[in-house]
Design a protein that fits this description.
The protein is mainly α. It has nine helices and no strands. It is globular and about 45 Å long.
Length: about 180
């Protein structure tokens, strides 16, 4: 940008500095920090994106929307066993082809998240857990079933962990049609 006088140049610089100072003085009530915290607490932007995607595609299907909200709440609260109650509710609905496709895409990623967050495997099983998680995320049901089975038989699990792993296994296969 060219200025015809030094005065106009200085005025432009001062105006720019004033705007920067005013913008940095605004607090916005800590919203930026809160948003970053919510994303981090919920497994990052990927999980947040899954929730938003489900809300969007389930729009107009109130039961599916409420089930997706309940599912995401349970994830946020770390109530991983209850997540699968919502899987069963959604599975029992008459979903449109778009809703069914979005659900099948989302449930592998959600199951992977539950596996990663709901368990702490010893060093010897971390690689197997990572492979199971990767297979769930990519929709490779055959590999996911195989790795989950190996984890279940190899790991020393509490009763609640064994139940949770069984729930993940039971929901690996994609839905082929609404109930």
């Amino acid at each position: 940008m060219q200025y015809r006088s030094l005065a106009k140049c200085l005025l432009s610089i001062m105006a720019g500095l004033g705007l920067c100072a005013a913008a940095s003085a605004l607090d916005f009530g800590g919203l930026k920090e809160k948003a970053g915290s919510v994303v981090a607490e919920n497994g990052g932007s990927s999980l947040l994106g899954i929730g938003n995607s489900l809300y969007s595609v389930f729009k107009g299907n109130e039961i599916a929307t409420q089930s997706a909200k309940g599912l995401m709440t349970q994830l946020k609260e770390g109530q991983y066993g209850k997540v699968f109650d919502y899987y069963d509710k959604i599975q029992g609905l008459d979903l449109s082809p778009d809703q069914l496709s979005a659900w099948n895409d989302a449930k592998g990623a959600i199951s992977s998240y539950v596996l990663e967050e709901g368990f702490s495997f010893d060093k010897a099983l971390e690689g197997l857990a990572a492979k199971a998680s990767e297979a769930l995320q990519s929709g490779d049901t055959s590999a996911a079933t195989r790795y989950l089975g190996k984890l279940k038989s190899a790991a020393t699990l509490t009763d609640s962990q064994s139940t949770l792993l069984s729930q993940i296994q039971a929901h690996v296969q994609p839905l082929l049609g609404g109930s």
